């Protein structure tokens, strides 16, 4: 695969991971009303995603060192899609939390994407590759 195509795929993966963090923001008031969530519960729902990213980013990095970047990025992309669907179909508070936790775990692939960029680019292309990741945010 050409470098430009690889960078495009990585951009898409990181962009979708970022959507996992941000797409829910305008939904908080509706979720609070629909599920009777307190402001504390809404804050915990938001924090659960970030906490899982914080905890699982190094784990996914180690796994990608052992089995390769592409398989990890493929699995995390599928997991992110599944967690989005699960979130949309949630009918209870615990399902919302589980969906956000799973989304945070599978959305922890930004470090793997950065490592992939470092693996497939030379010195002169690496800045462009890392810029692509930054643009996805």
UniProtKB/TrEMBL annotation:
GO molecular function term, any single one: transmembrane transporter activity
One Pfam family named in its UniProt record: MFS_1
Name under which the protein is recorded: MFS transporter
Domain Major facilitator superfamily (MFS) profile: 6-137
Transmembrane segments: 7-28, 40-60, 72-97
GO CC annotations, alphabetized: membrane
Keywords carried by this UniProt record: Membrane, Transmembrane, Transmembrane helix, Transport
Organism: Candidatus Sungiibacteriota bacterium
Topology of the protein relative to the lipid bilayer: Multi-pass membrane protein
């Amino acid at each position: 695969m050409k470098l430009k195509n690889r960078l495009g795929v990585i951009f898409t993966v990181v962009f979708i991971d970022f959507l996992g963090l941000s797409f829910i923001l305008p939904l908080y008031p509706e979720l609070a009303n629909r599920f009777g969530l307190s402001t504390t519960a809404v804050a915990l729902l938001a924090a659960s995603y970030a906490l899982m990213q914080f905890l699982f980013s190094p784990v996914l990095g180690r796994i990608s060192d052992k089995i390769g970047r592409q398989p990890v990025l493929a699995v995390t992309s599928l997991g992110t899609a599944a967690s989005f669907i699960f979130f949309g179909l949630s009918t209870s508070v615990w399902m919302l939390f589980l969906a956000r936790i799973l989304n945070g775990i599978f959305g922890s692939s930004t470090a793997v994407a950065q490592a992939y960029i470092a693996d497939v680019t030379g010195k002169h292309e690496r800045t462009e590759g890392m810029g692509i990741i930054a643009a996805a945010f």
